[in-house]
Amino acid sequence: MRLLDEITAIRGIGGKTAQIFGRAGIVTVEDLLQYFPRSYEECGPPVPIASLSGTKTAVVCGTLCSEPKVRRAGKIQIVETAIRDESGSLRVSWFNMPYLRNSLQTGQRYILKGKVEANRFGLTLEQPVLYTPDRYAPLVGRLQPVYSLTAGMTLRMVGKAVKEALDSLPELPEYLPERFRRAYQLAEYNYALRTIHFPPDKTELTFARKRLVFDEFFLFILAVRYLRDANKEQPNGCRIRAAKEVEDFLARLPFALTGAQRRAYEEILADLTGPKRMNRLVQGDVGSGKTIVALAALLQMAHNGWQGVLMAPTEVLARQHFETVTGYLRRENLPFHTELLTGAMTAKEKREALERIVSHKADIIVGTHAVIQEKVRFARLGLVITDEQHRFGVRQREILSEKGEESADTSPHVLVMSATPIPRTLAIILYGDLDISVIDEKPANRLPIKNCVIGAGRRKKAYEFIVNEVKSGRQAYVICPMVEDGGRIEGENVRDYAARLAEELPPAIVIGTLHGRMKPAEKTRIMEDFSQGRIQVLVSTTVVEVGVDVPNATVMMVENAERFGLAQLHQLRGRIGRGEHQSYCIFINGSDAEKNRRLEILNRSNDGFAIAAEDLKLRGPGDLFGLRQSGLLDFALGDIYTDAGILREASQAADALLAEDYALEKEEHKPLKRRLMRYREEKLERLSL
Questions:
Q1: Pairing mode, if any, of strands 307-311 and 450-455?
Q2: For labelling alongside 480, which of 318, 502, 668, 673 has CA 20 to 30 A away?
C-alpha cells in the first residue's frame, strides 16, 4: 500500500464505504491519515444520578425503566425514556433519532454519556451516546479521538480505517533534517502520525502534535517566502497617476475617513503610482471601514482606464458589495459600469456578463470564485481585491492576479483585505508575501456594542431579552459550536438547539437554521430571508462570521462561548452593531467555572487588536484538548494563537534554511524539497489564510 493509493486499498473499505469517506474529502490513504481528530475525550467512570446538576456532560449507568416514546415538536421528533440507578431516575431524550425506539430495550442495563439540561421536565440527559457496560469498560481513563463526521460515517469506522492504514503502510520517509528535529525538539514523523490518532496519554499527544503543527507552519512559510521573492521585484505595469476625481468623491461622502482609513488609502495610492507592483494586505477590525478604502482604489484604476475586480467569499456578500458600489456610482453620477459575476447566475446571464467584461464595457467587476474561472477574460485588468482574505486560498489570489494581459509586466496589483485581528508580529509571518496596512480605528458614528457574560442558568433571561428585541422589530443571531452533537463532546448544536428554542420562544417568532453543511444555494436563501426580516432569530454555526450586513440584527447570543477563541468570538460579534440601534452581545459560559478569563476580556473590550494580543497571552497547550480555538486560519491542526510559539520557531527555521540553501540543493535537503513541491501543488491551493 502507498500513500497515494485510493482508499479502497485499505482492507475492509469497499466502494460504498469509499463514497461515504469521499463526502468528507477522503479519497486517498494519505487523505485519511491527514484527517486528524478534531478533539479528544477522556472517558470517566459513571456517576450516581442523584449527584447530577444541569449544563454539564455526565456518564451514568442504569437500567432503562420506561418504554421509549416518540413525540413531535413542530418538525422535530423527540424520543423520550428514563433510566434508573440505585440513587434515582433520570429523563433521557434524543432529537431526530426515532429509530432508537425500536432498538432500546426496557429493563436493559446501559451506560449513557450526554449533556444534562435543566428544563420544565426537571433534569434531562440530552442526546446521549449509548454503550453496553462491557464496551465502555476498556475506554475508561483513555484518550479517545473524536473525528468530524459526515452522513454515514461513525467514529468506529474512521478509527478502524486509520489503524488498518497505519499497520499496512511501510515506514514513511522522514523529510525534516535531523538537526531541525533536535533543535526544536520534534518527534519522528511516523511516531507523530500514529500518536496523533491513537495517543496513549496527553504528554505523548502534545509531543506528536507539536511535530505535525511545526510541519504545517514550516511548509506554508517556505511556500510563502518563495511567493514573496517572486513578487518582490515585479515592475508596476499598471502604473497610474493619482486621479483628483477620487479625492473629490471622498470629500463628498456623508462622513469623513478616519485617520487609519486615510493612512491605508495613501499607502495603497503610493503603490499604485509607484515603480513596483502592489501586493498589500489591509488588516482592519470588524466595522472599521475597509470597503470604502477598497472602492477608492477601484475608482483610481477606473479613472485611469483600468478594470478592477473585488472578489468576496459568498454569493450574499458579493451581491451586497455590488449593490454598495453601484449605489455610490449612481449617487455620484460616475461614468463607470459595475458587473456582478457569481456561480448562481444563469448561463445566459454569465455569457452576457463575460462579454461586457472582455469588451471593457465593465469597469468594476464584483463576484465570488466565479471571477477566477478559466472562461473569464478581462480587457485591461489592473487591480485585484479579495475581501475576507482568510476565506481564500493563497493560490486562488495568485490565479486571479495572473488574469491580466499576457505580459508579466502588466500583472495586476493585488490588494487583500482581512478582518482577522492577528497581532502584527504573527501577521508578518503568515502574510510574508504582502506589505501590511492596518485600519485600527472605528467610524465615529458607530454605537459600541454592549456585552455581557452569563452562566447557562440565566439562559431563560437571555431568551426573554431576545423576545423583547424581536417585539421591538429587531432580529437576533444564536451561535452554536457544532452542527450536530455526536454525543462525544459537550456543546450546543444547531439542529437540536433550534428545536428546543422553538419550544421556548413564542410561536409567532420565525426561527431559521444555518450551517456549513448546507448547499450554497440553501445558505444564500436563508441569509437573504434573514436580511429581509422574514426570519427573526437565526440559529447558526460560525458560518455567519463572514456574511451579509443585517443592520436590523441587534442581538448576538453565543452558546458555549468558552469553547471559542477570542478572535473568533470578536469576529462573530462583528455581525451586529452595524445599524442605528443599540446592539448587545450575550456570551453563555457553559463551563462549570464561575468566571472565564477570556470571556471577561471580551466583555470589557470591543477592540479586536487588543483582544488578539490578550488572546495570545492566554493561550496554552491545554487548549488543544477542546475544539479548535481560532477557526479563522484553515490549517488542519495548527492554531496561530495556541501554537504561536511553534509558528515563530517554524519561521526561524525557514529563514535559516533559505539563508543556507535557498534552492534546497544539498543532499540532506532533497527529501524536504520533494515534500515542498508536493505541498505547493496539492495543499497551498486549498489552504485559506
A1: unpaired
A2: 318
The dihedral through the CA atoms of 349, 351, 354, 356 has a sign that is: negative
The region, left, alpha or beta by phi > 0 then psi within -120 to 50, assigned to residue 77 is beta
DSSP letters, 474-535, are -EEEEE-SBSS--SSS---BHHHHHHHHHHHS-TTS-EEEE-TTS-HHHHHHHHHHHHTTS-
Distance of alpha carbon 255 from its chain centroid, rounded?
Answer: 33
Q: Per residue in 529-554, is it b (16+ CB within 10 Å) or e — as a string?
A: ebbeeebbbbbbbbbbbbbbbbebbb
The whole-angstrom separation of Cα 661 and Cα 418 is: 33
Which residue in 31, 3, 29, 9 sits closest to 686, CA to CA? Answer: 31
Query: Using a CB cutoff of 8 Å and minimum separation of 24, what contacts does 397-402 make?
Result: 398/227, 399/372, 400/309, 400/311, 400/371, 400/372
Vertex 251: Cα angle to 246 and 254 (nearest 5) = 120
Rounded Cα distance between 277 and 266, Å, is 15
Close Cβ partners of 636 (under 8 Å, ≥ 6 residues apart): 34, 36, 216
Which whole-number Å values give the CA distances from 333 to 327, 362, 504, 544, in the listed order?
Answer: 10, 16, 50, 34
SS (H, E, C) 178-239: HHHHHHHCCCCHHHHHHHHHCCCCHHHHHHHHHHHHHHHHHHHHHHHHHHHHHHHCCECCCC
Separation CA 408–CA 532 (nearest Å): 45
Burial class (CB in 10 A: 0-12, 13-18, 19+), 172: middle
Beta-carbon-side half-sphere exposure of residue 280 (alpha carbons within 13 Å): 24
Instruction: Check: CB of residue 122 under 8 Å from CB of residue 91.
Output: yes
Backbone angles phi, psi at 517, to 5 degrees: -85, -5
Give the other-Cβ count within 10 Å of 169's Cβ. 19
Residue 419's closest CA among 545, 285, 320?
285
Give the model confidence (pLDDT) of 97-119 as tens digits.
Answer: 888 888 899 999 999 988 888 87
Confidence of residue 369 (pLDDT cuts 50, 70, 90): confident
What is the helix (H) or strand (E) element at residue 326, kind and residue range?
helix 315-331
- C-alpha 271/C-alpha 287 separation (Å) is 25
Pairwise CA distance, residues 523 & 512, whole Å: 11
State how far the Cα of 28 lies from the Cα of 487, in Å rounded to an integer.
28
- Best CA proximity match to 309, nearest among 238, 391, 382, 241: 382
8 A C-beta contact, residue 533 and residue 595: no
307 class by beta-carbon count within 10 Å (0-12 exposed, 13-18 middle, 19+ buried)? buried
pLDDT in tens, 2-32: 888 999 999 989 999 999 999 888 999 999 9
Q: What angle do CA 408, 264, 330 make, to 5 degrees?
A: 85
CA distance linking residue 570 with residue 421, whole number of Å: 9
Give the β-pairing of 553-558 and 584-589: parallel
3-class state of residue 250 by DSSP = helix
Least confident of 148-157, 343-352, 420-429: 420-429
**Are the CB atoms for 75 and 502 separated by under 8 Å?**
no
Is the CB of residue 324 less than 8 Å from the CB of residue 296?
Answer: no
Q: Residue type at 431? A: Y
d(CA 550, CA 523): 15
